Amino acid sequence: MPVTVETLYERFEDREATRRGLSLLDVRPIIARVLGVSPGTLTNLKRKRLKRSEYLKDAITSAFIRSLEAEVARITHEIELLRQGGSRADSDEIMEAERLLARAKELIRQ
């Protein structure tokens, strides 16, 4: 079953709010700026009030993937720093970072 634009946006908005430590209302203008639309357009998208929302799908998908790729790069860097600092491969920090990396890569594949 294909993912709707509204569902994709909600996942992206939730993830960005969590990552940035902001509320959904506070993160919406940031996402709107990235997508090149007004925050009201995103509010209407979320409430399923847009007549045509498919035009946003490519922009949302691209922004979501860029965000996940940045997260993968950050986690990979963190793992490398832990390894360079002498952390053991089975340490809790490395195991957690590798778990997060696997999850981010899984999200990109979806």
Topology:
Blueprint: H1 5-20, H2 24-35, H3 39-46, H4 57-84, H5 92-109
Characterization of this structure:
It contains 5 helices and no strands. The model has no long low-confidence stretch (mean pLDDT 86). The protein has one domain (5-109). The radius of gyration is 17 Å and the shape is elongated. Helix 1 runs parallel beside helix 4 and helix 4 packs antiparallel against helix 5. It is mainly alpha-helical.
TL;DR?
With 110 residues, this protein is an all-alpha fold. It is 75% helix and 0% strand.
Please describe the structure with a list of short key phrases separated by commas or semicolons.
mainly alpha, single chain, 75% helix, 110 residues, 0% strand
